[in-house]
C-alpha cells in the first residue's frame, strides 16, 4: 500500500527544530544568566534565522529572532 502524507512548509518546521538544536548544544564550560534555564557558552544577545529571503521568527528565553 502507498501512504501519502501532506508535507509541512519549512517555515513552520524550522523554528521548533532550531530551538531543539540550540538546547542540545553542549560546551565544556557553559553558564546561565538572569533567571533563565537555558545553558550556553555565552549569553545569547540576538538570534537570526533566514530561509531564502524570509526571516524565521522564534524566541528563546524572551529573546526574539530578528
UniProtKB/TrEMBL annotation:
- E.C. number: 6.1.1.14
A single Gene Ontology CC term? cytosol
Annotated InterPro entries: Gly-tRNA-synth_bsu, Gly-tRNA-synth_heterodimer
What catalytic activity is recorded?
tRNA(Gly) + glycine + ATP = glycyl-tRNA(Gly) + AMP + diphosphate
Source organism, top-level taxon: Bacteria
Broadest EC class assigned to this enzyme: ligase
GO biological process terms on file: glycyl-tRNA aminoacylation
Alphabetized Pfam families for the sequence: tRNA_synt_2f
What UniProt keywords apply to this chain's record, in alphabetical order?
Answer: Aminoacyl-tRNA synthetase, ATP-binding, Ligase, Nucleotide-binding, Protein biosynthesis
Instruction: Give one GO term, molecular function aspect.
Output: glycine-tRNA ligase activity
As for family, the record states: Belongs to the class-II aminoacyl-tRNA synthetase family.
**Entry protein name:** glycine--tRNA ligase
**Organism for this UniProt entry:** Syntrophomonas wolfei
Q: What is the lineage of its organism?
A: Bacteria, Bacillati, Bacillota, Clostridia, Eubacteriales
Amino acid at each position: 500500500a502507498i501512504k501519502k502524507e501532506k508535507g509541512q512548509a519549512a517555515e513552520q518546521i524550522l523554528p521548533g527544530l532550531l530551538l531543539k538544536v540550540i538546547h542540545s548544544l553542549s560546551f565544556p564550560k557553559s553558564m546561565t544568566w538572569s533567571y533563565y534555564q537555558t545553558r550556553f557558552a555565552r549569553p545569547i544577545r540576538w538570534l537570526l534565522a533566514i530561509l531564502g529571503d524570509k526571516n524565521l521568527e522564534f524566541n528563546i528565553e524572551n529573546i526574539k529572532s530578528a
